[in-house]
Predict the structure.
Amino acid sequence: MAFRGKGERGKHMADAAKISANDLFSGDPNEIFVDAGVPKYNRRLTDKILAAFNHAYSSGEGDLARDLWECLAFAEKRGAEQFKRRRPNQGLELAALWMAFVDARNTYRKLSDDANADEDETSRAFRSMKQAYLSWIWHLRQS
C-alpha cells in the first residue's frame, strides 16, 4: 500500500485492518527478539552496555564512553559474583579491543585524507586497523 499524498494517507490508514500482537508473532517469545532485529548474542545486560560503549567510543563521545566503561566494569564484577557463569572482565576485554580498532581506524582515516601522507605509513596504518579488527572479531566470536 503506497502513500502518495497527505489526503490519501488518512484514507488508507482508516481502511487498514487492525492487528494485534498475536497477529505479529507466533507463540514463541524468542521470535519477538528475532523480529525486533536484536542479535541473539545481545541477551545480557553487559552485552547491551558493551554495544552502547562501542557506539559512543566510535562516534567520539568520550565522556559517555568513559561512563559506560565504568558501568560495564561494575556489571561485569557484579555478574561474576552472582552467577559464576562467565569469566570476569570479558566485556572489558572486548571494549579494549574495540578501542584499539577505532583508534587504528581513526589513524588510517586521517592518513587517507592527507594528500601529503607517506604511502608506506598509510599502508601500515591500514594493516594495523585490519589486525585490530580481526583481533576484536575473533575475541567476539569466542565469547
User: Anything to note?
Assistant: Residues 42-142 form one domain. The chain has a mean pLDDT of 76.
